[in-house]
Structures are given as structure tokens and as C-alpha cells.
Amino acid sequence: MNVIECNGLTKAYFRKNVLNGLTFTIEENKITGLIGRNGVGKTTLVKILAGLIKETSGEVRVFEQHPFNNLYTSANTILVDDQMFFPPALQLHELLEVAQSFYPNWDMELAQRLLQYFSFDPSHYHQTLSKGRTSTFNMIIGLASRCSLTILDEPTTGMDEAVRKDFYRALMKDYLAHPRTILISSHHLNEIEDILEDVLLIKNGKTLLHESISDLKEWAIALQGASTVVQKWLVERNCIFQRQVGKDTLYAVVRDDFTKENKEEALRGGVEFIPVKASDLCVYLTNDTKGGIDDVFER
Amino acid sequence: MSSNVSLVETVKKQYAFKMKAYIDAFSSLVGIQFIAFLFSLGGGSSSMGTSDGYHFELKFYSADLVIIFTFIWIFVTAITITTKPYRNQDFTFVTNRMSSSLSNILFLLSASLLGAFTAVLSRFLIQTVAYFLLKEDLYIASVMTSEMMIGITVSLLYVFWISSIGYFVGTLVQIHKGFALLIPVIVIGSLFYDGFMQRYAMLLILFQFYFLESSMVLFAIKTLITTAVLFFASIAILNRMEVRR
């Protein structure tokens, strides 16, 4: 079953399209990473999926229903971000009780154990928590609610290294015990790539790439060698990224469509093949220029 | 694993949640009624006179001021719960716009009931304090339970009616911030304009339609219909609103 289906999804703010004909589907019980640069429409997309805002045009289906103003999708979806708003009059343990009353699959034992592990004082108030602590508490709500669709929008904002690692591990363990569809948007693909199954890469409000993480790791390859030789191999290939390394050495990333014979020939010519990390590839793909920041300084 | 939820069930949960989360509204009711209580101890609309060498002073100790302060309180409370932070916290948990509005109205009804009840009963506190602490000679018309009930019912109708006005005003402000300026300008402006034109104020005529109604049943019908229309309009407007946290 497809949990999320988007077809030509468009969202405009003040006549500017933030999402521009986004099309993708996400299957049940998969962990998908939502990757893209700042301001590319990730947050807009997850808010539409959570039913907070309404699409301008196109089709969106969550659990085969239209999410905006929908009680069914609201009960089965949770959106965790750093802007979750909790009533200032309630203490943390009361917030857990409220969440328990709303979410049918809520696991109170898990919530309380996580609260204890991250040494929260249950009688504190949400408003007094620091940025990282707020993210941690919101994450506890997100995990314990066990919603069929759990959306985490930049869940680790402000968390320190140790808490981030704990968080990913907790997410993984809870997912294995209770499989559900999880959508994580993050800037740090290298941090989350170990737990992801799929990656959805967004650029300019459109789907740029929707691949499994293993395919993504083999999707592209880097060539490094003498500039003239590497340039020869780049002919008729779409170069994703290139960088001058040293005086006469070129590092270039292209789609990996080399045949075995190609590779052997290139190797004889002194070209080195280097695998490209998924996180680096995503950065290269979402850059507007081939040379990245270097282009700005080379005028 | 996906679960179905009903609107009624969600409204109930939201209502229970709001009675806890909006506790500040109730504490401010205590504060505002206490202030009104202190003012009331001055004795409203006193009259003095001299007759046969006797000087007499007549003071009325009533709950009128407390009730008026309660009107102001419910108006402000109703506007407050339409504001962004309050709407957004609904959406942290399970809701749609309909259940959010319906639970708000239930909350306002409960708040109105509590406000009306305490305001009407405060009369006894005021008169007791006037008798024991201010050493006034008290002449109290005997209080019948039925009169008390009518007093509470009428106050409840007023308070709930005002809450619907507040909720509607708050909703308009949520559509466009300009209403926050426009509404006071229209209300106060119309008073000034009518005064300038030397005619009876439109606003007063409007209020007399409700306040000067002598038939209890007609009064109840008038206020309840107005309340229902205003809440219905607010629900219809809020139903299309996006949540931008």
C-alpha cells in the first residue's frame, strides 16, 4: 500500500511556487530521507502531508485520503519539528498524558523511560526547555505516539552529538519493533544514511531523485586524474561536479554508466575512479553550479 | 495499524485537554472578579437626603459590577483562544478545524457558566462584607431560589452571547490583522458620528434590542440565535484557515 502519493503537487506563496509539480509515492513501512537545500520546500511539503496547509494545485493522498482538515490522517500522522507548540500551563508529564489521550497507539512506558533516560524533570514546563532539549522532548512525543506515518522535520535541531546518536538509535530500535512509515528531513544525510532505506531528493520544488540508499551510493562515480585526460572522458557526459585539485589534476563527478572496458581504458590513461558518498552526491546534485562555492571566487 | 477516530470522540478529548490547558483563563476570572468585588464595596448608585432633621444615605450593594467585569473577561478570553498559539497547540495533537472550533465553543460555554454562576453569587459575599466589615445596616429583599436561577440563566445567556461576539471578532482578526484596527474604529467611530449628527446612537439601539427585552423567552431566543449565528460564521471562516507554525 502507498502511504503517501503526490501527483503534480504545487504550493504557491504570494504567487511564488515553493513546490512546483512534485510527484512521488512512498510505500508503507519505509524510512525515507527527505533531502534538499534550505528553502527548497521540504517544510512546506511535510506541512501539506500533515494537513496543516492546503496545496495550491495537484493531488496529494495520505492513507488514500486528502490530508487537509482530515481527522483520520491527523490521528495517524504526527509531525515533529522544533515549532511544535505545547500549552504553557501544562507540565511535561501532563503533556504526555494529553498525548496519550489523543494518540491511539501511544506507548506511555516508552515515553516515560525516554523522559527518564534524557533526564527530564517531569514537573518542568515545555517553554523553559532549551533548543536542544525542546527537540529531544518533541522527539519523545514523536516516537511514543507510534503513528503509522511519522514525519520528522529537522528533528535534531540543537541536539548535541551524544543525544543525536541516541536519537537515531532509539528511532531504529523502535522502528524495528513497530514498523511504520517514517519520513525524515535533514541537512545531515551522512548522519542518517545508515538508517534510511530510500532518499527523496528535492530541488526547486521538484523531485530530483527518488532512489534506495544503496542505489544512490552507486549512482555516481568520481574521476580523478590529469585534467586533459579527465576532460576527454567528460565529453558527452553530464558532469555533476568538478573541482581542480592541485595544479593539473581534475576531480569530476559523473553518472556511473561506464562499461568495464571503459573503466579499464581510463585506468590505463591514469584516471582514478573514486566512489562518491551519498551525502556528497546530494550536495553536488542540488548545487546550481558545477563548481560549487569555488565558482564564486574564480572570476 | 491505522486507527479510525470519530469527530465526537475527538471533540470530547479536545475539550478535556482545553479545560486543563486554558487554566490561565480561570485564574484571570478569579482576579478580575476580585477586583470588581473590591470596587463593589464602595456601594453603587448611592443617594442621600435630609428629612425631619435626619440625614440618610442609601447605598446599593449588588453584583452588577462583577457581572460587567465578567462580560469583559469572557470577551477577552474568547478573542485570546482564536489567536495563533492557541490554534496551533490544537494541531500538535489530533484535530481538524471543526473539532478545534467545537471544543473551543464547549470551553467558552463552560467558562460562561462558571463566570455567570460566580458573578451572580458574588452578591452575597459583597453584602456580607458590607454588613460585617463596613457595619452597614442591611435591608435585603428576600432572595428566592427561583429568582436566583433566573439571575444565573440570564447572566449565562449574556456571557455566552458576548463570548460568541469575542470569538467572531477574534476570527476576523485572524483572517486579516486589519480588523484589529477596523472594528474598534467602526464601533467608537459610529458613536462619535451619531453624536455629531445629534441623533440616537445606532449601537445603543442595537444593544437595547437585547438589553431592554422584558420577556424572558424572547430574550433567550434573541441571544441564542445571535450566538449560534456568530459561532457558525466563525466555524465556517476558521474551517478554511491554514496552520502556519
UniProtKB/TrEMBL annotation, chain A:
Entry keyword set: ATP-binding, Nucleotide-binding
Transmembrane segments: none
The keyword Signal is assigned to this record: no
InterPro entries: AAA+_ATPase, ABC_transporter-like_ATP-bd, P-loop_NTPase
Lineage summary: Bacteria, Bacillati, Bacillota, Bacilli, Bacillales
An MF annotation (GO) of this entry: ATP binding
Domain of life assignment: Bacteria
Matching Pfam families: ABC_tran (PF00005)
PANTHER family, per the entry: ABC TRANSPORTER, ATP-BINDING PROTEIN (PTHR43158:SF5), SKFA PEPTIDE EXPORT ATP-BINDING PROTEIN SKFE (PTHR43158)
Domain ABC transporter: 4-229
Record SUPFAM superfamilies: P-loop containing nucleoside triphosphate hydrolases
Keyword ATP-binding on entry: yes
Signal peptide annotation: none
Protein name per Swiss-Prot or TrEMBL: ABC transporter
